[in-house]
Design brief:
The chain is mostly helical. It is 76% helix and 3% strand. The radius of gyration is 35 Å and the shape is elongated.
Amino acid sequence: MSEKKDPGIWDGFKAFLMRGNVVDLAVAVVIGAAFTNIVNAVVKGIINPLVGAIGTKNLDHYSSCLSSTCEGEQGIQILWGTVLGAALSFVITAAVVYFLMVLPMAKYLARVEARRKAKEGAQEVMKVTELEVLKEIRDALVAQRGSGHNQQ
């Protein structure tokens, strides 16, 4: 008389954590955070100095004033340089993700699919060939049986 215990909350939590998609998501978040640091470094170390050749090195300093004076906290400033920096970070991130992750994975999956289709095609040809061989054997047996009956 053994009593079955319902899985406890702790066991359910461990099962949830050990599911593949949760672990994959956690890895993606960690790698994404590290990748963000790289993109920010590229923007601050390369893009901003290139823009700085035209004006200031810090994109955050690019702004426009909507009121007559914009000194200190007074006036209405549009910080379009900050938006431009964020947009550049986004475009760089998207380009790196696409060209280094999405595009190679798509090409790899296309090759795998082409191999699978080629293998299926070869198996289908093989089945057709087997069917033809079996038909020839059947015809040969029928012909052999027919000639054997004529001799008796």
